Amino acid sequence: MAIIPDWTLILQIINFLALVFILNAVCYKPIRAILIQRKQKIQGFEQDIDGLKQEATESDQSFQTKIGEAKLKGFQQQEALKESAEEEEKKLIEEIHQTAQADLKTVRAQIAKDAEGARLSLQAEAQAFSAAIAEKILGRAVS
Question: Is the CA virtual torsion 79, 82, 87, 90 positive or negative?
Fold first, then answer.
């Protein structure tokens, strides 16, 4: 059995080539165009993502810088308030010390005055007491 090409073989080749051109025009080109558009969209999204990542990084760095500055400022204010409070405490302690010294001086003067008054009073009474003691010891009046 031998294969003999006839006019149907040429018809099949023409049919095949026609289908290739028709399918290329109807199916393959639109699909390729859609794939190209899809690839371009994905690349655009990737670029947007990269840009947003960079913006987020810059925002984070800016945020961290501002937080650091705020912490430093707060620490400086805290130190200033602490120093101010220490100075105020020293002033109050000095005022209390001076008041205590003045009160102590006043109390010492009052005690000295009272002691002098008691000494003078006891001195005056000491002679009367000594005479009374002498009378009791001797059993007679002493003049």
Answer: negative
Of residues 58, 38, 62, 30, the one with CA closest to residue 46: 38
**Measured between alpha carbons, how far is 50 from 107 in angstroms, rounded to an integer?**
83
d(CA 112, CA 135): 34
Q: How is residue 39 written in tokens?
A: 């690839």
**Lookup result for tokens 């059995």:** 1
The residue type found at 10 is I
Q: Tell me the DSSP string of 108-138.
A: HHHHHHHHHHHHHHHHHHHHHHHHHHHHHHH
Pairwise CA distance, residues 99 & 97, whole Å: 5
Q: Position of tokens 């913006």?
A: 55
- pLDDT (tens digit per residue) in 95-111: 999 999 999 999 999 99
Tokens 């003999």 correspond to 4
Whether 131 and 142 have beta carbons less than 8 Å apart is answered as: yes
Claim: this prediction has a pTM higher than 0.85: no
Tens digits of residue pLDDT in 69-78: 999 999 999 9
- C-alpha neighbours within 13 Å on the C-beta side of residue 19: 6
Residue with tokens 């101010």: 84
